[in-house]
Automatic annotation (TrEMBL):
Pfam families hit by this protein: AIRC (PF00731)
Pathway assigned to this chain's UniProt record: Purine metabolism; IMP biosynthesis via de novo pathway; 5-amino-1-(5-phospho-D-ribosyl)imidazole-4-carboxylate from 5-amino-1-(5-phospho-D-ribosyl)imidazole (N5-CAIR route): step 2/2
Keywords of this entry: Isomerase, Lyase, Purine biosynthesis
Domain PurE: 6-157
E.C. code: 5.4.99.18
GO biological process: 'de novo' IMP biosynthetic process
Entry protein name: N5-carboxyaminoimidazole ribonucleotide mutase
Organism listed in the record: Desulfobacca acetoxidans (strain ATCC 700848 / DSM 11109 / ASRB2)
Length: 175
């Protein structure tokens, strides 16, 4: 992939975070959003993280998603080295079940903003959607895809409600 056409950079603090992120990457792929995924640790490879962040805008990236567990300083370090929006996804990978990564990701000092999502796979999917929302501000076709996606979500809720009402009606008939 041509590095200058990548819109979203996804940085995993560990390759073990991939299962939580894969559905989000599939979402980006399905929507035609170009992305790259790398592994870089704020603690074990800080120069790699700093270099990635400081060069991201120059390479054409528009948004960075940082996925990390435990101490989870990845999003903050990335945000400190770039003016691009950084979206943090805390992962429940330690004995503290994600509380440590959530607090580390959400507690950024003034001047180092990180948009923090929910823990785990749901947070990763929301990060992908949020990145697309950022990109869609300048792309009417992408805005239309997001609108359609939201309509599909609403339709699924309506469908599940009707299904539940049918079950309840059936239950009432048997009583």
């Amino acid at each position: 992939m041509d590095q200058h056409n990548v819109q979203v950079g996804i940085v995993l603090g560990s390759a073990s975070d991939w299962p939580e992120v894969e559905p989000a990457v599939q979402l980006l792929h399905n929507w035609g959003i170009t992305y790259e995924v790398i592994v870089a640790s704020a603690h074990r490879s800080p120069v790699r993280v700093q270099t990635y962040a400081s060069q991201a805008a120059g390479r054409g990236l528009q948004v960075i998603i940082a996925v990390a567990g435990a101490a989870a300083h990845l999003a903050g370090v990335l945000a400190s080295e770039t003016i691009l929006p950084v979206i943090g996804v805390p992962i429940a990978s330690s004995a503290l079940h994600g509380m440590d990564s959530l607090l580390a990701t959400v507690q950024m000092p003034a001047g180092t903003p990180v948009a923090t999502m929910a823990l785990g796979a749901a947070g990763a999917q929301n990060a992908a959607i949020f990145a697309v929302q950022i990109l869609a501000r300048q792309d009417p076709a992408l805005q239309a895809r997001l609108t359609h996606y939201k309509q599909e979500l609403a339709g699924k809720v309506e469908e599940s409600s009707l299904h539940l009402q049918d079950k309840i009606a059936h239950l009432k008939k048997t009583v």
